[in-house]
Amino acid sequence: MKHTLYPEIEAFINTIDVSKISNDRKQILQSLIDFIQEKKDAGRAIKLNFICTHNSRRSHLSQVWAQTMASHFDIQQVTCYSGGTEATAVYPMVIETLQNMGFHISSSNTAENPIYDIKYAANEPGVVGFSKKYDDNFNPAEGFAAIMTCSHADENCPFIVGAEKRIPIRYDDPKAFDNTPQKAEKYYERSLQIASELCYVFSMIR
To answer: Phi/psi zone of residue 141: left (φ > 0), alpha (ψ -120 to 50 degrees), beta?
Structure first.
């Protein structure tokens, strides 16, 4: 059953123009499309673990948008995770960016590494967002795709234990603009890029 996303998120997705994605990027995304399609065709669970060094920015944006796009395109049995080579905390600008794009977000605590409930639809469970290592007990131990979202993690983790497939899909780090007037704009740009590419990925699933 297709779930109804929050109207602001639905409206945003409807503005995405996947034709703007370059052919080079589409080739990079094809491995993820193939993994999802193969699992769907086999009627098996689709587990996606988005990995970057600190599990604080790009991996969370990817996790949230992948889960949202799976719901938008009614692709069943998809569960999205994220992790890092070390645990830190979700960077606050990531939360602010997602809220500005229509997500309903609450936090269960104010610890150094808060746990966020990130909701994209009223009748769907929220994405659980907190910083953790990629092999944390919260994440799958086997049968998942490890999507490497940053160059550092990609280069320094050539082997991810339990991963059925390792897929490098690198994104530039918005952290480079943390102390600049362009901060909010650049986090939005990265979120838009990730949303657009994952919209394309899930739109290709048959």
So the answer is: alpha
Q: Backbone phi, then psi, for 164, in 5-degree steps?
A: -80, -30
Residue type, 120: Y
What are 22-80's pLDDT values in tens digits? 999 999 999 999 999 999 999 999 999 999 999 999 999 999 999 999 999 999 999 99
Structure tokens at 108: 């269960």
Q: Which helix (H) or strand (E) holds 146?
A: strand 144-148
pLDDT of residue 151: 76
pTM of this prediction? 0.95
Q: Parallel, antiparallel, or unpaired: how do β-strands 144-148 and 163-168 relate?
A: parallel
In the numeric block, the tokens 């395109």 are attached to 73
- Closest CA relative to residue 149, chosen from 91, 198, 203: 198
Number of DSSP helices (H) and strands (E) in the chain, helices first: 6, 7
Nearest to 113 by CA among 125, 128, 127: 128
> Which two structure tokens, joined as six digits, stand for 38?
């193969």
